[in-house]
Amino acid sequence: MAHYFFHFRDGRGLLRDGEGRDFTSVARMRMAALADARSMIADDVLHGTIRLDQCIEVEDSKGAPVYSLAFADAVTVTGGRS
Fold first, then answer.
1. Is 24 helix (H, G, I), strand (E, B) or coil?
2. Distance from the Cα of residue 21 to its chain's centroid
3. What pTM value is reported for the model?
């Protein structure tokens, strides 16, 4: 089992995850990052704004970056104004 830290980056800075979480595989860690990003986007929608310029940056237990997920890559946007 590996330990990962999920940091949140927006236009103002980086919010560091001080606890982290354990995952049995890289695939499960990536699925959790995707679920977290989509949850944050859903919360933004409830407040009337969607910010796709944010991301989740994942580090391993040694502090090495291992994965980054841009919010724009977490959803597919369709339709919109013409």
1. coil
2. 14
3. 0.91
Q: Are the beta carbons of 4 and 21 closer than 8 angstroms?
A: yes
Amino acid symbol at 23: F
Structure tokens at 2: 């590996």
Model pLDDT for residues 14-67, shown as the tens digit of each residue: 999 999 999 999 999 999 999 999 999 999 999 999 899 999 999 999 999 999
How many other C-beta atoms lie within 10 A of the C-beta of residue 25?
10
Look up residue 48 and give its DSSP letter.
Answer: T
Pairing label, strands 55-60, 65-70 = antiparallel
3 burial (CB, 10 Å; 0-12 / 13-18 / 19+) is middle
- What gap in Å lies between CA 34 and CA 50, rounded to an integer? 16
Q: Determine the 3-state secondary structure of 43 from DSSP.
A: helix
Give me the residues paired with residue 13 across strands.
10
